[in-house]
């Protein structure tokens, strides 16, 4: 297997330059599309509820991701605290929507670097899986920069809600090996109602297009483990609120029918979802089958279908110390 691209970028000096550029942007933060302007270097908190330090809620070998990500040894998952969206149904709401609770979890990029090496050397995972990384891109890049001379050589997975700024993503080219974005909505008004975000659709589509430009279609090794490429996740919501048909048509026509799609059926009304009647239930079999059939119609043949009974398995509990998905 060839070395990840970030090693060559480190050796050429390019990685250090990118780290410096990204860190400078924290002074008037424009890392994500909200571009709130907070001086995070001086202790101000951005609209994402993140500051200068990195909130890390959990680090574990996750065996519940897509088969090409988890493999046989698990995906070395770093669950970051806080988020630049406010999804009323967020399954990770315990860490994404409770900034006060995340304060004790704040660490420096150097400590994050240590955890990356722990994933590689102690957990022996296939990759480093960065969950909700958007608000911490500068710190993540610093951590990778510090870990390379200490032997880091695992592929990097960027596991995101896709509300990412293209200019930030461009700094990740050659660093991220596998992009794993959600494509949540096909309607800006629904995105505003359910995730408190403006212009989600054009922003996420532009971000995913840039990701695809960087890494292309999914490439796996001889053991069917992902080494490079794009995997687009789509969570089916009740009452067709995710706009599944429009989003799948966009992938097929504007990206490629060859793009790998991970169709998720795990929706469960958590957090504030019971207060929003259209999403206060799980999806039906008919809703699930409709989207599955659509994949066939559009020729989207690469990827995975999550089983209808998956929601119970995929509910994390971050009150449990250690692994949020393995509670013994």
Automatic annotation (TrEMBL):
[4Fe-4S] cluster binds at residues 83, 87, 90. Binds 1 [4Fe-4S] cluster. The cluster is coordinated with 3 cysteines and an exchangeable S-adenosyl-L-methionine. Coiled coil: none annotated. Its EC number is 1.97.1.4. Transmembrane segments: none annotated. Signal peptide: none annotated. One of its GO terms (molecular function) is iron-sulfur cluster binding. It comes from the Bacteria. Residues 78-194 form the Radical SAM core domain. InterPro entries: Aldolase_TIM, MJ0674-like, Pyrv-formate_lyase-activ_prd, rSAM, rSAM_sf. Pfam families: Radical_SAM. It is an enzyme of class 1 (oxidoreductase). The keyword Signal does not apply. Keywords: Iron, Iron-sulfur, Metal-binding, Oxidoreductase, S-adenosyl-L-methionine. The keyword Iron applies. Gene3D superfamilies: Aldolase class I. Its cofactor is [4Fe-4S] cluster. SUPFAM superfamilies: Radical SAM enzymes. This is Putative Fe-S protein PflX. It comes from Dehalogenimonas alkenigignens.
